[in-house]
């Protein structure tokens, strides 16, 4: 801080020192220390002046009134402050010079110290490098010494191994000499081979001796040297004695193993199993253990198996009960194997091998015994009766047994069975049945079909009424279609249900190979096609037989014109009966066609939903099945087509009968032709349209699509032709022509319901054609000019005009034809 100091010119209150700028330096503190001694006096004077003067808004003091240049100054210490500040600046400059000098000295000292430090650091680095080199040489030396020590250790270890091997070889040779002493004499052996406490050691040594002796005998056996032959004969004694000893030791161990097994002493069992693993890898011990399980030797337990599955009813107990029985039995087997697996894992050093033997024994013994009882393959020559379940019972039991056995195989696989191919072994149990499965499935479907057909025939015979006279019951049965003989969609649905069940068995039994599955599915589906085709075709044929019988009845009661009235009345009554029979037969056939269409739709839907997805993966299978289905449907369509043509014949026969009996000559040529014309259709036309409306009602319902269009078009053509032929039997007056045109309009309105444009056009032309009876003779030429397409038919119809001869229309027509 500043201190007091005297000056020659003026007394200065403070002097600056370097210590003032050290530490927490503050300029305000330094300045305050310089001026505080002067400013207090000024402040007192200032306050006194402020009390007597005026203040202005900016806060500055005004001069006192009357004060002039010779008065007191406003800031009297200014001169002292200026002197102080000048002295302070001078001292600050001096201080800066001192500091610069010190800094220069310090800098030179730092340079000198840095040079010294660099020199020292270089010397240290050289020393460190030398130290690293020394460490590297030391490490190399240590490594060399370590390698030498390792080699020495290896040599020592090898020497120790050779020593131990030599010692063991000496021991083995000594033991081998004991076994090679006397054939069959095992009494003079070392105590090692009879001590029960050292059985494991004895077994190991015996196996080594046996391996060495057998190898030596085999090697010497291929040598032709006489000395070698003598050596081999010597070791053959040892081989025989060792074989006897190993057999005796193995039997002892097995007996001890069995005793421990009876007591459930797992530790003893494990010890014996471990020792026995040295004998043929423990195969005898593993097989002995598996064979001694109660599940394979308990006769009562095995006899209970078939009782659990079949109960008291045997194979007739039903597949559902057999499935439940198999599930119960197989679950018990799986649980037993699971318990045995725990024991096997705790006892045997190679549990997977033991599990493989155990599972194989379960499938080959227990499961095979059940399958032999369940799957009794029936004969395809003498099929089992339906009372015995038929072939279907065998197939259902086969499917259930296969499915449940597959589940057992999966359960055993999850427990563990080593390297055993459980799936392949399970498949081999059913090989004999799967090889002929497709033949049995087809034979079963055929048997079911025959049984169903016989049932339907029996029901039809029971419903058939008794006939008297010359027509026998059997003949009547063939002529009359009873409800039981009619086609039933429910029967076809039953066929599909049989087939669907068979396909499910195909999928189950043939799923391993896609080609085999497709082949079996095709063969089973072909059976369905044959059944549906045969059933529908025979049903249509029976319906056609009723049409044929109705036609025979019509022909039987056709009479001539020269008969008595009583005979004609009786014949008319019989003709009405024949017409009714024909109408009933027509309706029955239409219903049969409708049911055929529904049945075919069910067949196609079944093929699309079930069969297609099974055949598509195999190339060509789906296309072949489609072709077979097309052939079967085509057969049904052929029978239906024949019947539909007969239906048209039946309808047209009745139309012709109504026209011939109801149409009067006066309908178109009335004697009272001058009176007002009758605009009503003729009675024959009314009867024909009414008959067609009634009989075709079932056709409109039964037929669909192209079948309906084709049938109605053919019927329309036949009706058109029949009406033309019918009208050519009559003569027409102008009023008759008007009535004919009214009939044609009635027929045209009816056939319009056929939705057949070609038929509508023909009847429209008929209406135009009727104008030849109405127009005046001189107007016929203009009629031809307006509609030239009717010229041919019109030339024939003009001849039916009642004024054809009187009006000399023939010569007029000749001139018209000549002009044209």
From TrEMBL:
Belongs to the SEC10 family. GO terms for cellular component: exocyst. Keywords: Coiled coil, Exocytosis, Transport. It comes from the Eukaryota. Residues 201-812 form the Exocyst complex component Sec10-like alpha-helical bundle domain. Residues 79-195 form the Exocyst complex component Sec10 N-terminal domain. InterPro entries: Sec10-like (IPR009976), Sec10_HB (IPR048627), Sec10_N (IPR048625). This is Exocyst complex component 5. Signal peptide: none annotated. GO terms for biological process: exocytosis; Golgi to plasma membrane transport. Pfam families: Sec10_HB (PF07393), Sec10_N (PF20667).
């Amino acid at each position: 801080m500043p201190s007091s100091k005297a000056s020659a010119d003026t007394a200065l209150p403070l002097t600056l020192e370097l210590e003032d700028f050290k530490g927490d330096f503050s300029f305000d503190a330094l300045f305050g220390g310089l001026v505080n001694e002067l400013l207090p006096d000024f402040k007192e004077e200032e306050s006194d002046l402020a009390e007597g003067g005026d203040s202005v808004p900016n806060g500055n003091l005004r001069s006192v009134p009357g004060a002039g240049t010779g008065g007191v100054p406003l800031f009297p210490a200014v001169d002292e402050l200026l002197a102080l500040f000048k002295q302070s600046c001078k001292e600050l400059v001096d201080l800066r010079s001192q500091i610069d000098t010190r800094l220069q000295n310090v800098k030179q000292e730092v340079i000198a110290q840095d040079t010294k430090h660099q020199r020292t650091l270089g010397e240290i680095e050289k020393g460190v490098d030398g130290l690293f080199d020394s460490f590297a040489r030391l490490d190399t030396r240590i490594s060399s010494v370590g390698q030498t020590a390792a080699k020495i250790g290896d040599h020592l270890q090898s020497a120790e191994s050779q020593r131990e091997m030599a010692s063991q070889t000496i021991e083995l040779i000594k033991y081998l000499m004991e076994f090679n002493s006397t054939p069959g004499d095992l009494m003079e052996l070392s105590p090692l081979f009879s001590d029960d406490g050292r059985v494991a050691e004895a077994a190991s040594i015996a196996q080594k001796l046996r391996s060495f002796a057998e190898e030596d005998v085999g090697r010497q056996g291929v040598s032709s040297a006489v000395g070698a032959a003598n050596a081999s004969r010597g070791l053959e004694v040892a081989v025989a004695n060792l074989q006897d000893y190993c057999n005796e030791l193995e039997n002892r161990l097995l007996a001890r193993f069995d005793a421990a097994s009876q007591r459930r002493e797992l530790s003893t069992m494990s010890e014996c199993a471990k020792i026995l693993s040295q004998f043929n890898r423990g195969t005898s011990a593993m097989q002995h253990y598996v064979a001694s399980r109660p599940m394979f030797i308990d006769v009562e337990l095995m006899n209970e198996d078939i009782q659990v599955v079949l109960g008291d009813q045997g194979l007739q107990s039903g597949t559902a009960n057999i499935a439940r029985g198999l599930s119960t039995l197989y679950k018990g087997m799986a649980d037993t194997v699971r318990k045995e697996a725990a024991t096997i894992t705790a006892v045997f050093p190679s549990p997977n091998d033991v599990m493989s033997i155990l599972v194989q024994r379960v499938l080959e013994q227990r499961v095979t015994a059940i399958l032999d009882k369940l799957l009794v393959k029936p004969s395809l020559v003498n099929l089992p009766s339906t009372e015995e379940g038929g072939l279907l019972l065998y197939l259902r039991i086969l499917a259930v047994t296969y499915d449940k056995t597959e589940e057992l195989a999966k359960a055993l696989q999850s427990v563990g069975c080593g390297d055993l191919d459980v799936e392949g072994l399970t498949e081999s149990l059913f090989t004999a049945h799967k090889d002929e499965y497709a033949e049995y499935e087809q034979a079963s479907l055929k048997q079911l079909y025959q049984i169903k057909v016989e049932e339907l025939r029996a029901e039809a015979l029971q419903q058939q009424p008794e006939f008297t006279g010359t027509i026998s019951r059997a003949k009547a049965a063939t002529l009359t279609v009873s409800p039981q003989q009619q086609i039933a969609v429910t029967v076809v649905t039953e066929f599909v249900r049989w087939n669907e069940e068979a396909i499910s068995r195909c999928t189950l039994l043939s799923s391993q190979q896609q080609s085999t599955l497709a082949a079996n599915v095709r063969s089973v589906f072909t059976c369905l096609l044959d059944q549906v085709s045969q059933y529908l075709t025979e049903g249509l044929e029976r319906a056609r037989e009723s049409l044929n019988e109705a036609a025979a009845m019509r022909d039987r009661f056709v009479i001539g014109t020269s008969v008595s009235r009583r005979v004609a009345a009786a014949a008319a009554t019989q003709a009405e009966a024949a017409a009714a029979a024909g109408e009933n037969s027509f309706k029955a056939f239409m219903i049969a066609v409708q049911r055929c269409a529904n049945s075919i739709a069910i067949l196609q839907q079944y093929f699309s939903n079930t069969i297609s997805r099974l055949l598509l993966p195999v190339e060509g299978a789906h296309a072949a099945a489609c072709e077979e289905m097309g052939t079967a449907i085509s057969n049904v369509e052929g029978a239906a087509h024949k019947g539909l043509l007969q239906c048209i014949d039946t309808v047209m026969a009745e139309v012709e009968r109504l026209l011939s009996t109801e149409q009067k000559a006066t309908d178109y040529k009335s004697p009272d032709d001058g009176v007002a014309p009758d605009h009503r259709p003729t009675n024959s036309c009314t009867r024909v349209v009414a008959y067609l409306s009634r009989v075709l009602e079932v056709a409109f319902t039964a037929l669909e699509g192209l079948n309906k269009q084709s049938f109605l078009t053919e019927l329309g053509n036949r009706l058109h032709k029949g009406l033309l032929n019918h009208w050519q039997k009559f003569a027409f007056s102008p009023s008759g022509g008007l009535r004919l045109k009214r009939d044609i309009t009635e027929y045209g309105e009816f056939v319009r319901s056929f939705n057949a444009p070609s038929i509508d056009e023909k009847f429209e032309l008929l209406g135009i054609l009727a104008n030849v009876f109405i127009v005046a003779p001189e107007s016929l030429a203009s009629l031809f000019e307006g509609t030239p397409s009717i010229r041919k038919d019109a030339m024939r119809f003009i001849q039916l005009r009642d004024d054809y001869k009187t009006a000399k229309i023939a010569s007029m027509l000749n001139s018209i034809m000549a002009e044209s």
